[in-house]
């Protein structure tokens, strides 16, 4: 077994395990996902869409799970969400029509995070794992929870155009997405 690589703050770094290689060019299946704004979102519909997928946000009280930092790529859900929040207008400026965060957490759980972090876009729940299983997204188990490994999908008219994976560091993901989208336009 390979030794884990650790980055700043002694966080385990994610590695590309090849588990998303099949996604590029794939048509998104029509699956309704509950959103924190009370709507149901179908990622197969709509124009240029960015979906950043994260394992889970920690509650405002209690913090991260014990051992969370030792899981490669697990830490950083809040900083990733805040980066997309902070770059929301710029993402719209490079043509993004829809922006979502996605996890397997329930919509009620996600609502607290969306409000606490003042997100100007909804978070989507795949608590049933319908989308995750249909797309064969990379999953992992922690304390009886099935979570999705961190990745970001660029979807154009229902087709996956690009995948960022692994995403590290999470707080740079929004900037990386903007740079990729800007280069796509030229």
Poorly predicted spans: 1-8
CATH superfamily (homologous) name: Glutaredoxin
Termini, distance in Å?
43 Å
The fraction of residues assigned to DSSP E strands is: 15-25%
CATH architecture: 3-Layer(aba) Sandwich
How confident is the prediction overall: mean pLDDT? 88
How many distinct beta strands? 9
Rounded radius of gyration (Å)? 15 Å
Tally of contiguous helical segments: 5
User: Percent helix among the residues?
Assistant: 10-25%
- One letter per element, helices H and strands E, the order comes to EEEHHEHEHEEEEH
Which of globular, elongated, flat, extended, rod-shaped describes the shape?
A: globular
- CATH class annotation: Alpha Beta
Strand order of the largest sheet: 2-1-5-4-3-8-9
Sheet with the most strands? Answer: 7 strands, mixed
Question: Could you please say which CATH topology applies here?
Answer: Glutaredoxin
Query: Structural class, judged by helices and strands?
Result: alpha+beta
InterPro entries: Peroxiredoxin_BCP/PrxQ, Redoxin, Thioredoxin-like_sf, Thioredoxin_domain
Protein name: Peroxiredoxin
Domain Thioredoxin: 22-186
Keywords: Antioxidant, Disulfide bond, Oxidoreductase, Peroxidase, Redox-active center
Question: What does this entry look like structurally?
Answer:
With 186 residues, the chain is of the alpha+beta class. It has a single domain, classed as 3-Layer(aba) Sandwich (Glutaredoxin), CATH 3.40.30.10. The protein contains five helices and nine strands, in the order βββααβαβαββββα. The protein has helices at residues 77-86, 88-93, 107-116, 130-135, 173-185, and strands at residues 32-35, 40-42, 49-53, 98-103, 123-125, 139-142, 145-148, 151-156, 159-164. It has a seven-stranded mixed sheet, covered by helices on one side. It has a two-stranded antiparallel sheet with strand order 6-7. β4, α3 (107-116) and β5 (123-125) form a beta-alpha-beta unit. The longest helix has 13 residues, at 173-185. InterPro entries: Peroxiredoxin_BCP/PrxQ, Redoxin, Thioredoxin-like_sf, Thioredoxin_domain. This is Peroxiredoxin. Keywords: Antioxidant, Disulfide bond, Oxidoreductase, Peroxidase, Redox-active center. One of its GO terms (biological process) is cellular response to oxidative stress. It comes from Paenibacillus lutimineralis.
